[in-house]
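Progress note, sequence design subtask.
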């Protein structure tokens, strides 16, 4: 009887461990792509969603490459700041926020110049949906960690 009880408990333990492994967050399971691969994947997605022609594809590809390079620069600056163990001042945070806002506005203006009116409207709605999804993920993350 004791052996049966131990075997049953062992089985339940293994089964619950297997379920935990299946429920890992998608973030950990996501494949690691290089910036070039991410740009190419995003270009393909935009091409299908917005029906981009060859000229537009080339322009969007250039824009994505520029954005990627700027994002890498920001990432490196943030890492350097993190390693120095000094917190940014309120003025530095505000300047960074304004710089990001200016980058976003410049990117929007460039996309508006590349796309026609219908494509731009659709692209803008996609951006809003993505922003909403990101906000929802942040809310879920905060709920999990509180």
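Output:
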């Amino acid at each position: 009887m004791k052996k049966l009880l131990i075997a049953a408990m062992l089985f339940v333990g293994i089964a619950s461990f297997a379920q935990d492994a299946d429920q890992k967050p998608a973030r950990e399971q996501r494949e690691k792509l290089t910036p070039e691969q991410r740009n190419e994947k995003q270009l393909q997605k935009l091409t299908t969603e917005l029906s981009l022609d060859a000229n537009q594809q080339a322009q969007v590809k250039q824009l994505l490459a520029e954005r990627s390079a700027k994002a890498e620069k920001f990432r490196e600056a943030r890492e350097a700041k993190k390693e120095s163990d000094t917190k940014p001042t309120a003025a530095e945070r505000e300047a960074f926020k304004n710089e990001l806002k200016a980058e976003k506005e410049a990117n929007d203006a460039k996309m508006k110049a590349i796309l026609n009116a219908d494509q731009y409207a659709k692209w803008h709605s996609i951006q809003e949906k993505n922003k909403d999804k990101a906000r929802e993920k942040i809310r879920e993350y905060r709920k999990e960690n509180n």
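The mean pLDDT is 83. Work on this subtask will continue into the next period as scheduled.
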